[in-house]
Amino acid sequence: MDTWILPVLLLLTSYCCHGVLACPHLCTCYFSTNTTQVVCSGPSVSHFPLVGLPGNTTLLSIENTNLSSISAHHLEAVPFLQELHLSSNQLSSLPENLLKGLTHLHTLDLTGNQLEHLPPGVFHHAPLQNLVLRDNLLHRAESSWLPVNSNLTTLNLAGNHLDTIPTALLQNLPQLKTLDLSQNRLEKIAAGTLSTLSNLQRLHLEENKLNSIDPSAFHHNNKLTHLFLQENRLEKLPLGLLQGLHRLEVLTLNDNQLHFLPYGLLEKLPSLGASTGQGVDLSKNPWECKAKAAYLWKWLRANREVLFSPEDIQCRSPESLKGRPVLSLTEEEIQTE
Ligand SMILES: *[C@@H]1O[C@H](CO)[C@@H](O)[C@H](O)[C@H]1NC(C)=O
Ligand SMILES: *[C@@H]1O[C@H](CO)[C@@H](O)[C@H](O)[C@H]1NC(C)=O
Ligand SMILES: *[C@@H]1O[C@H](CO)[C@@H](O)[C@H](O)[C@H]1NC(C)=O
Ligand SMILES: *[C@@H]1O[C@H](CO)[C@@H](O)[C@H](O)[C@H]1NC(C)=O
C-alpha cells in the first residue's frame, strides 16, 4: 500500500458525512457497542450540528453553547436518541412537535435556558422518564405539557417563578419519584395538592417562601424518604404533618422561623437517620427555650445521632438563654424558664 493512502483514507472516513466515524464540526463523538454519544460545547456552537451527526446517536449533548433554536426537523436525524441534554443555551421557545418520532427518548435536560412558556403537548411525543426544566423563566407548569398517565419518574422545575404547586400537571404523573420545586416562589401547600403522588420518594421544596403547610399535605405521600423544607418562612408546623411517613430518612427544616415543635411531631418516624448521612436538620431557627420547648429538648437529647449541625440549634429567647445550643440546656433551665 502506498504510504499516502492511509492518511487520505483516515481523512476521508473522518470528514465525509457518510463515513463510519462521521462527527459534526465542534463536537466529539464516542462510539461503543450499544451507544453513540455526541457532545458539543462552547460558545462558537450557535446552530444545531446537523451535518455529520451519526444517525444512530443515542445521547446528544449540546451544552454551554449559543444555541437559540431547535426543531423537529433537526431531531428527525437522530431517531434512536435516548438522552438529549441542552442545558445552558439561549433557547426561549420550543415547537410543539419537537419530540415527534423520538420513541426512545427517556431523558430531556433543558436547564438554564430562557423558557417562559411552552406549547400544549410539547412533551407528549416521547416516552420521557426524566424531565429537567431547572433555571428557566416559567411562571406556570401546565397539565397539557405531558400526557395523562405519563411515565415520568423525575420532574425538576427548580429555579423558576412558580407561585403555586402545579397540581393539575402532577395529576398526570402517577409514577413520579422525584419532584424538585425548590427555588421558586411557593407560599403555601394546600390540602390535596400533592395527593396523587403515591410513589413520590424525594420532594424538594427548599428556598421558597413557604409560610403555611396544610396538616394533611403529605398524607398520601407515604413512600417519601427525603423531604426538603429548608430556607422557607415557616413559623410553625401543624401536628400530624409527618403522620404515616414511615420511610422518611431525611428531613430538613433549617433556616426557617420555627419557635417550637408541636408535641409529638417527630414520633413514629422509624427511618429517620437510619443510615449515615441521613437525619434531621433543625438548625438556624429562632427556638423559644421556654417550658413549651421541653418536647424539642427531650427529642434532641434522645436523637443526637441523627442531627445535622446540633450546635446551630440555638435558643433565640428568653434573653438569658439567647445563643445557647438547645442541647446544652439543663433540665432546670428548660423548666424554670
Ligand atoms: C449491549 O446490549 C446488549 C443487549 O441489550 C446487552 O446484553 C449488553 O450488555 C450491552 N453491552 C453494553 C456494553 O452495554
Ligand atoms: C453506530 O454507527 C457507527 C457507524 O456506522 C457504528 O460503528 C456503531 O457500531 C453504531 N452504533 C450502534 C449503537 O449501532
Ligand atoms: C451568539 O449568537 C448571537 C446571535 O444569535 C450572536 O449575536 C453572538 O455573537 C453569539 N455569541 C457568540 C459567543 O458566538
Ligand atoms: C407508560 O409505560 C407503559 C408500559 O411501558 C406503556 O404501556 C404506556 O403507554 C406508557 N405511557 C405513556 C403515556 O407513554
Automatic annotation (TrEMBL):
The lineage of its organism: Eukaryota, Metazoa, Chordata, Craniata, Vertebrata. This is Leucine-rich alpha-2-glycoprotein-like. Residues 285-337 form the LRRCT domain. Residues 1-22 form the signal peptide. It holds the Pfam family LRR_8. The keyword Protein transport does not apply. One of its GO terms (cellular component) is plasma membrane. InterPro entries: Cys-rich_flank_reg_C (IPR000483), Leu-rich_rpt (IPR001611), Leu-rich_rpt_typical-subtyp (IPR003591), LRR_dom_sf (IPR032675), LRR_TM_domain-containing (IPR050541). The keyword Hydrolase does not apply. Keywords: Leucine-rich repeat, Repeat, Signal.
